[in-house]
């Protein structure tokens, strides 16, 4: 493929949060519905959740904040951390998530009197934004958190990994951030190389998870296909095996 790998330093120098957020508008509808549907699967609940590689976005956490009291966001670049922080603090110039929050409120059956209540809920649930590098053995650097009930990765590894071997290694490292028996909710771009992602020999299974649920979204548009040639997305819920249990699969 024509894919050119962008290392973390390139993201740091060139990733523009506002451009990414504006582009997100194109995909948001289905992304939100599928994120919501995964979260409703029942397997995904607990007290603490860590979102790895959050970028400047919160859409991936909107349904989750109904099931987890404490959310830790994390991101590699300073500009994305700052962009999210701006929104969490309601600062001027922050991205307007209102239409997305309203949409999720509707999907959840309009439990809130106003969308602003839901916005307040997620802003309170996100306790902090940590620096993160998925290639480090502790992805959250020197911060050691108690193992979480749930990990979320959304469009993470295919952005951060330069080849299949680092793509295979990264999930194993982040699995240590999680309690045995916890859940991993994952959205992954389906490039031609990653059709093995949901196979028994996939990095998800190799990292000690059992895949519970998969939704596949084929790409309909061909916008910017020359620079971004993915063909679809996987939405996955996986459960980690309790420690000490066998590592083979049915
Ligand atoms: C495609 S964005 C995904 C953002 C968000 N999770 C979403 O669903 O829209 C990929 C993110 O990965 C971050 N990233 C790049 N290299 C990374 C690394 N080594 N460790 C953690 N995050 C990294 C980038 O800064 C960028 O914010």
UniProtKB/TrEMBL annotation:
GO terms for biological process: methylation. This is Indolethylamine N-methyltransferase. Keywords: Methyltransferase, S-adenosyl-L-methionine, Transferase. GO terms for cellular component: cytosol. InterPro entries: NNMT_TEMT_trans (IPR000940), SAM-dependent_MTases_sf (IPR029063). Pfam families: NNMT_PNMT_TEMT. SUPFAM superfamilies: S-adenosyl-L-methionine-dependent methyltransferases. It comes from Crocodylus porosus (Saltwater crocodile). Belongs to the class I-like SAM-binding methyltransferase superfamily. NNMT/PNMT/TEMT family. Signal peptide: none annotated. It comes from the Eukaryota.
